[in-house]
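so i finally got all the pieces together for this one. its four components total, 446 residues if u count the protein bits. some of the lines might not be protein, just check the labels. i wanna see the whole assembly predicted at once instead of chain by chain like last time, that was a mess tbh
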Amino acid sequence: LDFKLWQACTGSTVQMPPVNSKVYYFPQGHAEHTLIDVDFGVLPRVPALILCRVSSVKLLAHPETDEVYAKMKLVRIGNDDSGYDDLEVLEKNDSAERLPSFAKILTQSDSNNGGGFSVPRYCGETIFPPLDYSADKPLQTLVMKDVHGQIWKFKHVLRGAPKRHLFTTGWSVFVNRKKLIAGDSIVFMKKENGDLYIGTRRYKRGGIGGTASLSRWNSIAGN
Amino acid sequence: LDFKLWQACTGSTVQMPPVNSKVYYFPQGHAEHTLIDVDFGVLPRVPALILCRVSSVKLLAHPETDEVYAKMKLVRIGNDDSGYDDLEVLEKNDSAERLPSFAKILTQSDSNNGGGFSVPRYCGETIFPPLDYSADKPLQTLVMKDVHGQIWKFKHVLRGAPKRHLFTTGWSVFVNRKKLIAGDSIVFMKKENGDLYIGTRRYKRGGIGGTASLSRWNSIAGN
DNA sequence: TTGTCGGCCGATCGCCGACAA
DNA sequence: TTGTCGGCGATCGGCCGACAA
């Protein structure tokens, strides 16, 4: 999966460490992000932080939900990291190279069955190719790919009074196929060559954050 | 899964050996019913028939296709089957106890989208509760369960000239949900207490019978 | 600027009797 | 007796501008 595409789907809050960079692995944080209640009390004493080297990063997308995620391989390194500095740090991401993209949280009307998609003006003017504004009802068909490379087509119109950007034909099939509901987000991206991409972000349907199952790590294994 | 229900779905051509009965296991037959090409030539010499005792039988239905099948556990017995005759033969099936049932192969019209189901007169009169024939257009709602216990409702009417039994409302959702096509069969069953059940039999969509991949068993391992 | 609503038009679904195999 | 067909009415999807937040 293309890195910029992946990054546009995660949003700017997510930062991936480059390959060969040094990171701290934080067992408690990892445990709390799983739904399994890990009892550190019964395990051998686990350090709070473990210095590691990122040996590989795989950018992936769930085949059904389109949710993007990463698989990272971490190799523990001791204080003796001699020779480590020779390794080239790959994928040094320059945030200035980020693709132009636009995200919108779906409203009830956007996700209603039998409805269209209300395109925010800024998105309609900066992400998509310009419409023929001289026409009475400017209209074009937008073709975009999702994270799996599947093609989706949307009729993009500018109509109503006051004038507004809308997706009509093609939108509802996309919503149904991706099982999107109000609160989920949609992301549009434009590559340098003008190719358009569409991604989705699910509304957090609970599970992450660890509010329900507080790890017993703090109290027993120390901090 | 209830035995009589299971039996009605398989049809009368299928006979299940009772638990604790003696059977011959026939390796070549088993191999030909799998789609894997088993090469008996490379295996240690396999007897043509292996005398076994049926130690357990599980009647099952595929969660998606509704196809019914059985899992049998066979235990090899030698010529010395002393003590075997003491075991009680369970599930001795008396074919006289078979449930009243009716099967029909779906026509194009039955499986057409937007159509109903033409109920053969015999089925409409013997399996389902009697309609109120004094009415102009006799009508009732039939409730039946499939092999998974899921409930399906069908509007059963008697109309047209000449009068005929038909399923209208409810039929198309059933066909779509079960992905039935012309050539597939439908089975109606009535339990002693009057409860109705509905089962399906898929048209053989190839694969069984071993026409494509003839086993090499005959020629090499002997008969 | 844009979320929601009601109107409305066309497509599809599905119920019907006619008819013939 | 019953498979298939064309008709047609009801329902639904989905496109529209109005309006207000």
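The longest helix of chain B spans residues 3-10.
The helical segments of chain B are 3-10, 27-33, 108-111, 121-126, 171-178, 217-221.
anyway lmk what u think
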